[in-house]
Specification:
Layout: E1 2-10, H1 16-25, E2 38-47, E3 50-59, H2 64-67, H3 70-73, E4 78-84, H4 89-105, E5 110-115, H5 127-135, E6 140-142, H6 151-168
Parallel strand pairs: 1-3, 1-4, 4-5, 5-6
Antiparallel strand pairs: 2-3
The structure holds guanosine-5'-diphosphate (GDP) and magnesium ion.
Length: 169
C-alpha cells in the first residue's frame, strides 16, 4: 500500500472543495461551505498493480498567496492547480501558484484543472489562453465538479504520474 499526498491549489471559489467531494464521494453540493484550515480526504485506487491511497489536502481560505504555507505543501508527491473557466484571472493565479509549489516541492507531477466546463458558454478563458498554457508544457485537463466530467481521469492521471515518479528513485 502506497500513500501519496496530493495538494489542491487555486484561487478562492474555483471549485477545489467541490472537485475533492466529487472524486471522493461522487456528490456535488451547491452549498457554499467556507471552512477554515485544511481538510484531508482519503481515497484508495489501483494504479496498475499498485494499491494506492491518495491523501488529498484541500486548503480553505480567501487569500491563497499569504495562506499557502510551506507546511501545507511539504511532503506532497504531486498537486493540482485549479482555475475557474468563467473567471480568467484565476488562470494567472493558478499559474503563479504552480510556480510557487514547484519551488517548494521540486518537479513533482502537476496538472492544471480548468474547472466549470459545464458552463462553457460563460467562459472567459479562451482557446488562445489554453493554447498558450499548453505551449508551456503544462498538463491541462478540462473538468466539471458539477457533472463529474473528467474528475476521475484527473486524479487517476496524477496518481499514475506520481507512482511512475516514485519508481524512478
Ligand atoms: N457550475 C459549476 N459550479 C461549480 C463547479 N465547481 C464548483 N462550483 C461552484 O463554485 C463555488 C465554489 O466552489 P468550492 O468548491 O467551494 O471552491 P473552492 O473555494 O475552490 O473550494 C460553489 O458555489 C460551487 O458550487 C463546477 O464544476 N460547475
Ligand atoms: Mg474550498
Amino acid at each position: 500500500m502506497i500513500n501519496k499526498k496530493v495538494c489542491l491549489l487555486g484561487a478562492f471559489s474555483v471549485g477545489k472543495t467541490s472537485l475533492v467531494s466529487q472524486y471522493v464521494h461522487s456528490i456535488f453540493s451547491d452549498r457554499y461551505l467556507s471552512t477554515i484550515g485544511v481538510k484531508i480526504s482519503k481515497k484508495q485506487l489501483n494504479v496498475g498493480d499498485e494499491e494506492t491511497t491518495l491523501v488529498i489536502w484541500d486548503m480553505e481560505g480567501k487569500d491563497v498567496y499569504t495562506d499557502v504555507k510551506v507546511s501545507y505543501l511539504r511532503g506532497a508527491s504531486g498537486f493540482f492547480v485549479v482555475a475557474d473557466g468563467t473567471r480568467k484571472e484565476t488562470l494567472d493565479e493558478a499559474m503563479s501558484l504552480r510556480k510557487l509549489a514547484f519551488e517548494v516541492l521540486g518537479e513533482v507531477p502537476c496538472y492544471l484543472l480548468l474547472n466549470k466546463s459545464d458552463l462553457t458558454q460563460k467562459w472567459e478563458i479562451t482557446d488562445e489562453m489554453i493554447a498558450d498554457v499548453l505551449h508551456q508544457d503544462v498538463k491541462t485537463i478540462m473538468v466539471s465538479a458539477r457533472t463529474g466530467y473528467s474528475v476521475q481521469v484527473a486524479f487517476e492521471s496524477l496518481a499514475r504520474d506520481m507512482i511512475r515518479e516514485g519508481q524512478k528513485s
